Amino acid sequence: MPDPSPRRALITGITGQDGSYLAELLLEKGYEVWGMIRRSSSFNTGRIDHLYQDPHEPGRRLKLVYGDLTDTPSIHKALAESQPHEVYNLGAQSHVKVSFETPEYTTDVVGIGVVRLLSVIRELGLDCRFYQASSSEMYGRVVESPQSETTPFWPRSPYAAAKAFAFYVTRNVREAYGLFAVNGILFNHESPRRGETFVTRKISRAAARISRGKQERLYLGNLDAARDWGFAGDYVDAMWRMLQVEEPDDYVIATGETCTVREFCDVCFTEAGLPLTWQGEGLTERGVDAQGRVLVEVDPNYFRPTEVDRLCGDASKAKQLLGWEPKVYAPELARMMTQADMQSL
Ligand code: NDP
Ligand code: GDR
């Protein structure tokens, strides 16, 4: 049975990048943190191992339960056991390119998963606040810039379409039943804990490995794609703030600054001691070091059937109503990630 005294939070996706930072933040604030984890054939708790507490230890405040967003009984069990005051739904098949290859599964986890969670919360009559991890990918094809809470959505992938569905389901539950349910529309956020197949980490890791002679070349897709990249540690604080205010609402979280994949490469490779010059264009564009070695090349296999060209967020509502502001911007983030990858070698 849960300890009745501290505030309790349930995090889906606790083993992911954001889940690990959020768990740290909530534990620091004195919460009892329950995390839903998936059974895996190999260890998948690397990002939270440093927070793990032996189940036999009295007074432990991190509790893990097996579950899956495609499996209603496990969601029911996790919510009934934890009796949370706050639920953070971060679980997702979160890779945009992969969502084109697994559209049905992605829709099930990202879209229907939210319906399952909210239905069980209502069924159990839980008096809790609900955070939905919405995404800037919902803006997709740019109709105005910067994007704010009032910018129309134009999803450009199965992932983005499922996130848009989940966004409206969350908003509808708030309007229909008065549940404290909010959408954080978070723009890209990264960290040394970012999954290795997302572009920023792929770059920082390759820059570190190439500088140590462990890799020869980095192959990338669209170098012109531009994103508003912030730091995950800053962004989980915004999630928490959204559940502490009086009225539930939806908020954009972003830095307001945008750079291209090419520019992110420039900072990482310079930090690794391998400043690049760019030669050629289109499919033959390549990043070359001072010795003339080709370190970065374009591989069209990484192109997406429909691309999101450029995103830039306007987080002024969050600044005004939540008192939230980013502390880390893309160049510092790129240096931080490259340093961390160099140290881990
Ligand atoms: P990650 O991909 O790092 O983590 C995803 C988490 O979801 C992992 O814990 C994963 O478990 C879990 N998960 C995957 N499938 C399921 C499932 N079927 N049932 C339950 N859990 C599942 O994502 P991030 O931490 O980067 O992102 C967190 C959330 O925020 C996601 O919903 C993402 O879509 C959203 N988001 C992310 C942004 C970003 O820039 N990072 C921006 C905007 C939104 P496992 O470890 O076992 O794979
Ligand atoms: P994104 O992140 O799709 O914005 O989704 P990702 O890092 O995968 O791509 C960003 C941009 O870089 C281009 N790109 C490449 N991307 C990857 N992964 N690998 C490459 O080799 C490569 N080369 C160029 C992409 O085409 C794209 O334009 C992330 C995820 O965390 C989502 O879950 C989240 O919702 C959004 O951010 C906001």
UniProtKB/TrEMBL annotation:
Keywords attached to this entry: Lyase, NADP
Taxonomic source organism: Botrimarina mediterranea
Domain NAD(P)-binding: 10-337
Alphabetized PANTHER family for the sequence: GDP-MANNOSE 4,6 DEHYDRATASE, GDP-MANNOSE 4,6-DEHYDRATASE
Top-level taxon in the UniProt lineage: Bacteria
Chemical reaction(s) catalysed: GDP-alpha-D-mannose = GDP-4-dehydro-alpha-D-rhamnose + H2O
InterPro entries: GDP_Man_deHydtase, NAD(P)-bd_dom, NAD(P)-bd_dom_sf
The family this protein is said to belong to: Belongs to the NAD(P)-dependent epimerase/dehydratase family. GDP-mannose 4,6-dehydratase subfamily.
GO molecular function annotations of the record: GDP-mannose 4,6-dehydratase activity; NADP+ binding
Cofactor: NADP(+)
UniProt-recorded name of the protein: GDP-mannose 4,6-dehydratase
Any one biological process term the GO annotation gives: 'de novo' GDP-L-fucose biosynthetic process
Function in brief: Catalyzes the conversion of GDP-D-mannose to GDP-4-dehydro-6-deoxy-D-mannose.
Enzyme Commission code: 4.2.1.47
TM ranges: none
Gene that specifies this protein: gmd
Any Pfam family: GDP_Man_Dehyd
